[in-house]
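Tokens as discussed.
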């Protein structure tokens, strides 16, 4: 597991799942990792039972799993201003977040593979750029992205540790420019092209 500088091996993740503290990691790192595990479990359960949806209510529920005990508040849109480390770009003020969310999801999810991937990646990127929450925005956005993919029968996008540095730099470039193309290319490069070919030829999204 590699997310926002927090690295856990698979055996360490299993240890956390068993409720045992892992040595050699900060408590804050352990909290982030544990929350991420719970968030994935929540997402998988929602997809399986058909309750996943691209809505403010569901996104807030998911973020509550991602950032519990970590963010200033969790499970609701932020009520104050925020900044993003490493860039002069400032996210929108809190008063416009509800309207920005409605604008973000006004377009329906496409019914073809390429369109679904573009929609899902854009959802992640805009959630990260707008910063609807005090913390956990990228993590929540990536989970929502993968929720869209899973509900349409498509492989998830998993960022390998080898691409983390490139991811970080391209995100810093994306924030002020709002140009999604470089980040979209990076995220799509994390997919197995053979899997995509098979999905395009044989699978109809649900």
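Sequence:
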């Amino acid at each position: 597991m590699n997310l926002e500088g927090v690295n856990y091996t698979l055996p360490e993740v299993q240890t956390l799942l068993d409720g045992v503290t892992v040595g050699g990691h900060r408590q804050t790192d352990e909290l982030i990792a544990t929350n991420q595990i719970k968030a994935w479990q929540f997402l998988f359960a929602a997809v399986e039972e058909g309750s996943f949806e691209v809505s403010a209510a569901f996104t807030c529920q998911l973020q509550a799993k991602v950032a519990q005990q970590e963010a200033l508040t969790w499970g609701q849109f932020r009520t104050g201003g925020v900044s993003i480390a490493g860039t002069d770009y400032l996210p929108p003020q809190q008063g416009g977040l509800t309207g920005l969310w409605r604008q973000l999801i006004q377009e329906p999810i496409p019914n073809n593979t390429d369109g679904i991937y573009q929609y899902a990646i854009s959802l992640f990127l805009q959630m990260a750029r707008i910063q609807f929450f005090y913390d956990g925005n990228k993590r929540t956005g990536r989970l929502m992205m993968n929720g869209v993919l899973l509900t349409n029968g498509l492989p998830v996008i998993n960022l390998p540790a080898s691409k983390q540095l490139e991811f970080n730099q391209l995100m810093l470039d994306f924030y002020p420019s709002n140009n999604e193309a470089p980040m979209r290319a990076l995220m799509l490069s994390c997919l197995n092209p053979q899997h995509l070919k098979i999905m395009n030829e044989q699978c109809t999204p649900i």
